[in-house]
Design brief:
about 280 residues, alpha+beta, Immunoglobulin-like, about 25% helix, INTS7_C, Integrator complex subunit 7 C-terminal domain-containing protein, INTS7
């Protein structure tokens, strides 16, 4: 920080000397002392020392009138600014080093029997989802922040498929159900339960995500993000079928297992007509 302050004072002196007092810098040149600085500051200090030498060479030239600013003065000022801006800024020691890391590991149930398959849920029923997790810390837990709460969020959305194209209202595919629960971990362990409802048949995508809240109420998106697929069987459409032997205007609705009964009657009627 001191090096940056000296650099700003140096630029202030040079701009003041060119615009007010001609080409002469009244104050003594600033000494940066490149031998005793840290490694990350050496490049910036060398650029500042080079700028000081250029300014001193300008002081050795014949002074000009204070009422005018020459092209030579402007060029020198541009060179000084280029030297300083091209030098890399000092990066703190721990800028690229992680001192504290926090991660969350989740265990979700139920799980499909085969990895990558879907979870089957009967139409009209609900699915109970249990999320258990543990907060994992690095080598120095609680160095900068402490975990106060964990937020578990579950979202479900009906996926687009060939069968869903028959839906009259396409907005149903855009509806997303979001359930969230905030729990307090005990000894870094936590658990949350959700009861999900599926209003219609189809394939749903469940997304389970976790985030943490520190003691200052700041939210941190640590993850993880897990997905599950739930399949709800489509309701079979029942169509009225005319049954032989009944009144012409009478239609009954038959289930798929009644098709054998219908085909048997149709065969008998065909045989009678042939005779």
């Amino acid at each position: 920080m001191q090096i940056l302050q000296q650099m700003c004072v140096m630029l202030e002196q040079y701009v003041d000397s060119i615009c007010v007092s001609g080409s002469a810098v009244k104050d003594d040149p600033i000494e940066f002392g490149s031998k005793n600085v840290r490694l990350e500051l050496q490049q910036l200090v060398k650029a500042c020392e080079h700028a000081v030498k250029i300014a001193q060479n300008l002081n050795n030239e014949e002074p000009v009138s204070t009422c005018t600013i020459t092209h030579r003065q402007v060029e020198v000022l541009k060179v000084i600014v280029d030297l300083i801006t091209k030098a890399s800024l000092p990066v703190p020691r721990y800028f690229f080093q992680v001192l504290q890391s926090t991660s969350v590991k989740l265990a979700i149930s139920p799980q499909p029997r085969v990895l990558g398959e879907f979870i089957s849920v009967q139409a009209g029923s609900q699915l109970a989802v249990k999320v258990e997790g543990v907060v994992q810390h690095g080598t120095q837990p609680g160095l900068f922040r402490k975990i106060k709460e964990v937020v578990v969020t579950v979202t479900s959305q009906l996926q687009n498929s060939q069968k869903n194209k028959e839906i009259l209202d396409p907005k149903l595919l855009e509806q997303v159900s979001v359930l969230s629960q905030t729990v307090t971990p005990h000894n870094d362990f936590f658990a949350a339960q959700f009861l999900l409802a599926f209003p219609r048949g189809g394939q749903y995508l469940l997304v389970v995500e976790a985030s943490v809240i520190d003691e200052n109420s700041n939210a941190w998106k640590t993850g993880p993000r897990s997905t599950l697929t739930v399949k709800v069987p489509e309701e079979t459409k029942l169509t009225p079928i005319a049954v032989p032997g009944m009144a012409n205007n009478a239609n009954v609705i038959l289930m798929p297992e009644d098709s054998l009964f219908t085909r048997g009657h149709l065969k008998k009627d065909v045989n009678k007509t042939q005779h």
